[in-house]
Design a protein that fits this description.
There is one protein chain. The chain has about 400 residues and is α/β, with parallel strands linked by helices. It folds into two domains: about 40 residues, no CATH class; about 350 residues, TIM Barrel (Alpha-Beta Barrel). It is about 30% helix and about 15% strand. Strand 7 and strand 8 form a beta hairpin. Helix 4 packs parallel to helix 5 and helix 5 runs parallel beside helix 6. The longest helix has 21 residues. The N terminus is likely disordered.
C-alpha cells in the first residue's frame, strides 16, 4: 500500500545523502525500510450490487470510442455508469484470447480502474479462449493436450485461477465475487467436465471436480470473496431445469457461497412444464425468474445474484420490462444484485474477433462473422439510454 513520505522524512533522506550540512531540527522517528507499492483502499461489497459487465470497454476505447453522461458531458465509462446508479463491475477472463482482450493483463488493468472508482468487482472465469456458454465450452488451446486427463485439467483450472487472482491482488484490487465457469448448465471444458445426462437425470461428477479446483484456488487468494457457479436462464424452475442441476451440484460435493444466473427475458418464449410446452411473454419470464431466485436462495441457503441481464432496445417496452424486474428483484429475499451485460456498446461497434471469420471458425466451428450486440443500453450518441434508468432507483 502506498504511504506518502512527509516533508520532514524527505528532508532527512536528503541530509543523509550529503545534500545539507545540518540535519533537520525535528527527528522524524524510525523509517520503515521496506519498499511499498501503491494500492487503493479496499472497496466494500454492497448489500445489493447494481452493476454491469463492461469487458469490451478497453477494446472500444482503443478504437477511439468515447462515452458521455446523460447530460452530454464526456466522461470515463466508470463515471458514466456510477452516474446511472451502478456500484459494481463484472469482468470476464479468457485464457489466451484474440489480440489479448479479456486476457489477464487486460483484466488487471481495467480492474485497477474499477478499484480506483470505488466500485466492487466480480471476476468471471470462462476457462476458455473465447465465450463459454451452453452452446460451447471449448478447452483453451494451451490445455488441449491434457483434455483426457481430468487431474491435469483440474490443475490447469487451479493454476489459471490462482495466476489471475494473484495478479489482481498484487495490483491492490479487491475482488468481491468470483464465478467459476460461465453458463455451465452443460458443464465446462468439454469433454472433460461435461454434464452427463442419462435416464432423465444429470450427473455433474467431473464438472464438480473441475469447479471445486477453481473454488479452492479462488478462496486461497481471496478468502472473503463470494465464489459461485453460473447458470443461464433463471426462469427454468421446472424440476428438470435449475432444481435438478443444483441438487446434483450440491450432492456431488460442490462448494459455493452464492448462485449466479443469467436472465434475458426477451430471448425465450416457451418453457416445458411437465409434458406441456407453455408459451411465455417476457413479463411472465420475469415472473418465473423472480419466483425461482427466491426459491433457490431458500433451498440452498446462499444468496442468488443475477450476473447477466439484458433487454432489446429495438423492442417496445424494454426499458419498462427491466425496470419492473429490477423493482421486484430488490424486494426478493436472498437476492444480492444484478449486472447488465455489455450496456456500453453503441453505434454498431463490434469487437475485432467478430469480423475475423477464421477466428470465429477456430472458436465455434462455423466460418462466419458476427454483427453488433443487440441488447446494449447506450444510445447512438454514446449516452446511457432509458434502459439504464432501472439502476438509478
Amino acid at each position: 500500500m502506498n504511504r506518502f513520505i512527509d516533508a520532514l522524512m524527505a528532508a532527512a533522506a536528503l541530509w543523509s545523502c550529503g545534500g545539507t550540512d545540518t540535519p533537520p531540527a525535528v527527528d522524524p522517528g524510525p523509517v520503515d525500510p521496506t519498499p511499498t507499492t501503491p494500492v487503493t483502499p479496499a472497496v466494500q461489497t454492497p448489500a445489493f450490487a447494481k452493476g454491469a459487465d463492461i469487458s469490451w470497454v478497453t477494446e472500444m476505447e482503443s478504437a477511439g470510442i468515447k462515452f458521455y453522461k446523460k447530460d452530454g458531458t464526456q466522461a470515463d465509462i466508470l463515471t458514466v455508469l456510477k452516474d446511472c446508479g451502478m456500484n459494481a463491475i463484472r469482468l470476464r477472463v479468457w485464457v489466451k484470447p484474440y489480440q489479448g482482450w479479456s486476457g489477464k493483463e487486460d483484466v488487471v488493468a481495467l480492474a485497477g480502474r474499477v478499484q480506483s472508482a470505488g466500485m466492487s468487482l466480480m471476476v468471471d472465469f470462462h476457462y476458455s479462449d473465447f465465450f463459454a456458454d451452453p452452446s460451447r465450452q471449448q478447452v483453451p488451446e494451451d490445455w488441449k493436450a491434457d483434455v483426457s486427463d481430468l487431474t491435469k485439467m483440474c490443475e490447469h483450472v487451479s493454476a489459471h485461477t490462482t495466476e489471475v487472482l494473484q495478479a489482481l491482488k498484487t495490483a491492490g484490487v479487491t475482488v468481491a465475487w468470483v464465478q467459476i465457469g460461465n453458463e455451465t448448465r452443460n458443464g465446462m471444458l468439454s469433454p472433460s467436465g461435461d454434464a452427463v445426462w442419462a435416464n432423465g437425470q444429470i450427473n455433474l461428477t467431473n464438472f464438480v471436480k473441475l469447479y471445486n479446483a477453481g473454488y479452492d484456488a479462488a478462496k486461497a487468494v481471496y478468502p472473503s470473496a463470494n465464489v459461485m457457479p453460473h447458470l443461464d436462464n433463471a426462469y427454468l424452475s421446472a424440476s428438470y431445469g435449475n432444481p435438478m442441476w443444483l441438487d446434483d451440484f450440491k450432492a456431488k460435493g460442490a462448494k459455493f457461497d452464492m448462485i449466479a444466473f443469467s436472465h434475458y427475458p426477451q430471448n425465450t418464449s416457451k418453457m416445458w412444464i411437465g409434458s406441456s410446452e407453455v408459451s411465455l411473454s417476457p413479463a411472465q419470464v420475469n415472473s418465473y425468474a423472480l419466483a425461482y431466485i427466491k426459491t433457490a436462495a431458500s433451498a440452498y441457503g446462499v444468496p442468488v445474484i443475477v450476473s447477466e441481464v439484458g433487454v432489446q432496445p429495438s423492442l417496445s417496452g424494454s426499458a419498462d420490462l427491466l425496470k419492473s424486474f429490477m423493482s421486484e428483484l430488490k424486494k426478493t429475499n436472498g437476492c444480492a444484485g444484478i449486472f447488465y451485460w455489455e450496456p456500453e456498446v453503441y453505434g454498431g461497434w463490434v469487437p475485432a474477433v467478430y469480423k475475423d471469420a477464421d477466428a470465429i471458425y477456430r472458436y465455434t466451428g462455423k466460418r462466419e462473422t458476427w454483427g453488433s450486440y443487440n441488447q446494449a443500453a447506450f444510445s447512438s450518441n454514446g449516452r446511457p439510454s432509458a434502459i439504464l434508468d432501472a439502476f438509478s432507483d
